[in-house]
Amino acid sequence: MNIKKLAEKLQLSITTVSRGLGGYSDVSEATRKKIIKFAKKYNYSPNPNASNLASRKTNTLGFVIPLYGLNSNTLNQASFFEFISGMSNKINSENIQFIMKFANTIDEEKKAYDNLIKVEKVNKVILHNLKKNDPRIKFLQKNKINFVGWGRTQGRINYPWVDLDNETSTNLIMQYLYDRNHRNIAFINVDDKYNFAYQRKQGYLKFLKKNKIKFKKENYISVSYEDPDQVALVIEKKILNNSKITAIICSTEYSAAGAIKACNKANKKIGIDISLITFDGNIVNFITSPSLTAITHDRKILGSKAIEILTSETKIKNNSHYLAKPEIIERGSVLTLKK
Amino acid sequence: MNIKKLAEKLQLSITTVSRGLGGYSDVSEATRKKIIKFAKKYNYSPNPNASNLASRKTNTLGFVIPLYGLNSNTLNQASFFEFISGMSNKINSENIQFIMKFANTIDEEKKAYDNLIKVEKVNKVILHNLKKNDPRIKFLQKNKINFVGWGRTQGRINYPWVDLDNETSTNLIMQYLYDRNHRNIAFINVDDKYNFAYQRKQGYLKFLKKNKIKFKKENYISVSYEDPDQVALVIEKKILNNSKITAIICSTEYSAAGAIKACNKANKKIGIDISLITFDGNIVNFITSPSLTAITHDRKILGSKAIEILTSETKIKNNSHYLAKPEIIERGSVLTLKK
DNA sequence: ATTGTTTTCCAAAACGTTTTGGAAATTAAA
DNA sequence: TTTAATTTCCAAAACGTTTTGGAAAACAAT
Question: Residue A114 — φ and ψ, nearest 5°?
Fold first, then answer.
């Protein structure tokens, strides 16, 4: 079924059918309804190729996933799926076309963006893993393509974005531990060149400051993703050997795994001898007994908000943004200390 | 840049440029080279919308990801990314367009396939999580759309597929354990309605038979994905309480996590008091000390083979297939018993 | 030199839409 | 009732390709 046949069935011109479906005001409500009815009946939907071609524009969302950075920066697998899941509802209901590309290298990533803009002519983009002064931003702004950042950079931001509220997260955790009388809290983070790690560090530091707790260098460590065993070793040496530390915050599931290993090795029972709280941790959170208390964010909403911003009727404001609120899931790995 | 302008630059007709780029034999080698040179120079690539429209066909691969089944059937997140990663090289080099859809429900999944075929007019599909007598197969065969299964069903198969060699995997593991003098080996599987689980069970059973070891009902348990804590409990009760069992095979990362928890609770040291070997387990494999010995498959190749089958010049044979070979990564959670 | 083949090229039609610029029909205003 | 304004519709052009059905040019055979 194509528009021509549908127009014949309806005894209307092709133009009217097209405009009716497009919701233009120059077709009466009555005929519009009839057109929609027939379109449904004959299961018609416009050929996107013809449509894009004729209108000289697309309604396509482009999205490049940097495979090379998976699990070694802001993108982890679980968060990807949640984000996508949140997006997909909106995408389906808004009838947006959706092109996703996967890049195994930085070079491929560059090519992928080029292709999206120049060949596929997408009009919306989700930008992941933004860097400071990211060239993609200028590129997109120059080409007047709507985009929203998944994650954001530091400092002044002149583009719309969605992100986890990382600073609040660590603040929340610190408060949670503080309320349970922990005063020497170790924070195992990753390199703060990653924004999420930087933000989490800020939350940690600000809480200390607010409560007039001195920052102890030895309580904060930054580990790499690369060698998990190394992580366990570092934790064992620097954290577990420090008898003052009563609680550990892990910034990633990997470091939580490392912490668990270190604790096992040092024969410290999590939730009894030492408290542990981790970000996310879908898999590791139930290995300990009692299971790990964790902090999570609703990343589904992040995905749907991103689409919302991109499709908002009004011209996208450069300060639209959304912060996913954190939530602590209590499971029992945090001990309440005596005063 | 479009084909018309490029033709002007080349002082050739649009037809010749199009056919030259398409590699047709009715344009001389000399002009073809010149065309390609100019196309590169002016950074021209055909508008896919116009191209699809004019040729009445596409070169598009469709792929529906069932989000609802994530981590609760054959699809887990890590395998998805590996598969995709393997695909993407081929996709880029073969200049295939690629549409991926995500379905949160079975209903959405159905709609997604419909959309791919009828609206997007894809000519290639990757089918995931195949069921016996899967209606999608008939649907695609009827519409003469090339497809390849990621995973396969049991029994006679009349379509091309790629899959893990699950039967060999368990066979390999069993041999590995047997060589180290384990005779009472527990296998923690998931419901064998999932084909991969069924195949793994077959490998386990066949090994027993071949080596004339009696199958002991109490050594085989099937656990669900839903409640990880429950898994740990079952393992503790049924496996760890059975003093004859010297080694455990875990079919999924989740059950390995459950096993670790159970061992911790029962105070059994993995790699010392009991041996453990798991499928995959990117995250859990380094929690224990020594780290978990695991069996993995190269899922990247699975992805690239899938594309290879779909793009093979010759008409796709219904018996093309590829089995990813397993490999044991020794880490130290398996003990060699004394004879 | 003529004819037949093969190679190399091209004009025009087609793909299925959207958009433009107006025409016809209806309603409102005078 | 006539004119003006508004509403509702439509024919034709355009989008950037591919494909069809030859035509022209080059080469080969006689």
Answer: -55, -45
Nearest nucleotide, CA B7 to C1': C10
Q: Is the dihedral of CA A272, A273, A275, A281 positive or negative?
A: negative
In B 53-72, which Cβ lie closer than 7 Å to strand D? 53-55, 57
The structural domains of chain B, with segments of one domain joined by +, span 3-46, 60-164+299-326, 166-297
- Contact with chain A for residue B84, Cβ under 8 A: yes
- For chain A, the first-to-last Cα distance in angstroms comes to 75
pLDDT per position as a tens digit, B138-161: 888 888 899 999 999 888 898 999
Rounded to 5 degrees, what angle do the CA atoms A134, A140, A144 make? 150
Nearest CA to A295 out of A149, A183, A167, A129 is that of A167
Q: Which CATH architecture has domain B166-297?
A: 3-Layer(aba) Sandwich (3.40)
What mean pLDDT is reported for chain A? 91
Provide the CATH topology of domain A3-46: 434 Repressor (Amino-terminal Domain) (1.10.260)
Q: Which of A89, A252, A287, A304 best probes binding to B when mutated, by most B CB atoms within 10 angstroms?
A: A287
Is residue B101 within 8 angstroms of chain A, CB to CB? Answer: yes
Residues A306-324: tens digit of each pLDDT: 999 998 856 666 779 999 9
